[in-house]
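Tokens in:
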């Protein structure tokens, strides 16, 4: 049986396709049982941690300690903690990996690409091709969208 959490598999799961097998094997929410050895910092119920199956080197996550599914369930205190952890992540990535540019990515809902139903925000170092843009046909003009949403 394959060790899904071996160093080698963690480093290659996204490209090899093993990540889908890992997700299918889960019995419980892995973020609710996050191992201390992966946590970089905890602030007010939010964790800065490494991504166990990273898109690229330096891929970090901010995860809520309590199990919640979407951004609308965050408290003001948790929002402040998220902001502090984003700044810390930026500082650490720059200092240790010389990474200056990154994307903050949040997925809500299964069709958005989210693989776990536990709030998390990805901090992904910008590397060519990591977040490929697939532009879609635009059917609503920006001015019409602004009017619609006001």
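Residues out:
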């Amino acid at each position: 049986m394959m060790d899904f959490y071996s160093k080698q598999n963690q480093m290659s799961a996204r490209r090899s396709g093993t990540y889908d097998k890992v997700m299918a094997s889960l019995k419980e929410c892995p973020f609710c049982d996050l191992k201390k050895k992966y946590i970089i910092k905890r602030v007010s119920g939010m964790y800065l941690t490494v991504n166990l199956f990273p898109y690229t080197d330096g891929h970090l996550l901010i995860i809520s300690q309590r199990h919640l599914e979407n951004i609308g369930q965050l408290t003001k205190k948790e929002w402040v903690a998220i902001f502090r952890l984003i700044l810390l992540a930026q500082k650490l990535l720059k200092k240790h990996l010389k990474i200056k540019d990154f994307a903050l990515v949040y997925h809500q809902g299964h069709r958005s690409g989210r693989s776990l139903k536990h709030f998390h925000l990805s901090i992904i170092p910008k590397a060519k091709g990591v977040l490929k843009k697939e532009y879609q046909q635009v059917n609503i003009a920006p001015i019409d969208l602004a009017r619609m949403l006001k």
